[in-house]
Write a sequence for this structure.
């Protein structure tokens, strides 16, 4: 009986140690090269719209990380936006976004990242991305609030293409 119990404990310990670890998100590695996002944009009192973003990222001239997005938002004309990010410590980046009125703050934690910035008109944006088990896909959720009320949200997936 003691031998069976000992064997069971050893097997459980081996199974627990063999369990796959949650992948860690390396934000600059994920966005280096090409990526594609399929999202749905929901704005208060409007019909949902497709939000497709094709991105190209890599090292900038000054050692920063630059990401250029081509944004297809519903029936609106295609537009381009640019992110420029610098490391600000372990798992922390700061930078700018052409759509933002102030600095962008990015915190990476394990398999996820949270991005915060403000847009024109006082819209406060919080974007949360989480790396999926395949290591090549991020779930993407964005909330845009004004006066504490949700004005818009985005939900979708971002795929690494390279």
């Amino acid at each position: 009986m003691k031998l069976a119990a000992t064997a069971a404990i050893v097997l459980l310990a081996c199974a627990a140690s063999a369990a796959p670890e949650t992948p860690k998100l390396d934000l600059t590695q994920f966005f280096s090269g090409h990526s594609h996002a399929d999202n749905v944009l929901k704005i208060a009192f409007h019909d949902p719209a497709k939000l497709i973003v094709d991105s190209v990222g890599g090292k900038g001239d000054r050692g920063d990380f630059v990401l250029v997005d081509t944004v297809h938002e519903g029936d609106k004309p295609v537009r381009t936006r640019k992110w420029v990010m610098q490391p600000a410590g372990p798992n922390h980046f700061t930078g700018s976004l052409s759509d933002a009125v102030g600095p962008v703050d990015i915190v990476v934690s394990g398999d996820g990242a949270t991005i915060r910035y403000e847009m024109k008109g006082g819209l406060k944006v919080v974007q949360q991305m989480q790396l999926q088990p395949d290591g090549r896909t991020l779930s993407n959720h964005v909330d845009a609030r004004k006066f504490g009320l949700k004005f818009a949200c985005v939900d979708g997936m971002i795929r690494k293409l390279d």
The radius of gyration is 20 Å.
